[in-house]
Amino acid sequence: MFDRPKRLIRTEAIIVAYAMSRLDRKLLEHRQWRSWKQAFEEVGQSLDVKATSIKNLRDEFDPFFENERKGWEGRPIRPNRQRVLGEFSDVCDYVLLQIVDGVLISDKQVRDDIVWPIARATQTSNAAERLRTGRQAERIFYKQSAEILGVPSGELVDRRDDACGFDFGQLGKSSIAIEVKGMRADSGKILFTDLEWRTADRMGEDYAVVVIGRVFEVPRWRVIRAPVRVFDAMPSVSRSIATTWGATVSVT
């Protein structure tokens, strides 16, 4: 049997706990867990970790995601948790479910290609800070969208889980795209994913970026339409988890 070092076990537990928080009941249904209690116990047994530790890890991630739990709000997040947040930020839900399945059965490819690189990494991602700031900006926009953009919150369509390149649409106006960015101060750097940037380029004036500054104080905002024409942005390339699916086929 594979001898699993403590660092590997700890990283496996963090990845599964991250998925528990981000996917919430979708993960319970996928794994056919009847309750969180059952989930914590089964994951704990699979990974040789206390069930209470799995619960505590999940609660650490809860402030970063939209679920009914508050989690450990205000608690500084540790570097190994930040790395997981950063590595999985662009991984879709379907792939994350497959990774959790692989972790829980000690799949060698998942262990070697995904878990070990994260466990051995020393660089800390700032994804935690971006998530906090971004979520706060989205909350502000949702409450004050009529004032900010002239669109009542009741007309907003939440597209954040649709992987479509923007955060919100508007009822009855399928061509409208609204992307929300947040900053702690009055000015700073904002980031676009490649999908967001390409979508903004394609949609032109119909794509609006709402930049909200001072998100944890008295917020200020600016609306930028057609951001590709306004910003002098440069692309950057970084390493993150990417998943490909291989299959053997013959045409003979």
Give structural notes.
It is a single chain. It is built from ten helices and five strands; from the N terminus they run H-H-H-H-H-H-H-H-E-E-E-H-E-E-H. With 252 residues, the chain is of the alpha+beta class. It folds into two domains: 6-125, no CATH class; 128-230, Trna Endonuclease, Chain: A, domain 1, CATH 3.40.1350. The protein has a five-stranded mixed sheet. Helix 1 (6-23) packs across helix 4 and helix 1 packs across helix 7. The longest helix is centred in the middle third of the chain and has 23 residues, at 127-149.
The number of domains: 2
Helix/sheet category: alpha+beta
Order of helices and strands: HHHHHHHHEEEHEEH
Task: Report the biggest beta sheet as strand number plus sense, adding barrel if it closes.
Answer: 5 strands, mixed
Record field, number of beta strands? 5
Rounded to the nearest angstrom, the distance between the terminal CA atoms is: 39 Å
Strand order, sheet with most strands: 1-2-3-4-5
Mean pLDDT: 89
Please state the overall shape, judged from the principal axes of the Cα atoms: globular
Helix content: 40-55%
The radius of gyration over CA amounts to 20 Å
**Which parts are unreliable, with pLDDT below 50 for 5 consecutive residues or more?**
none
Oligomerization: single chain
Summed up, the helix count is 10
> How large is the share of residues in beta strands?
5-15%
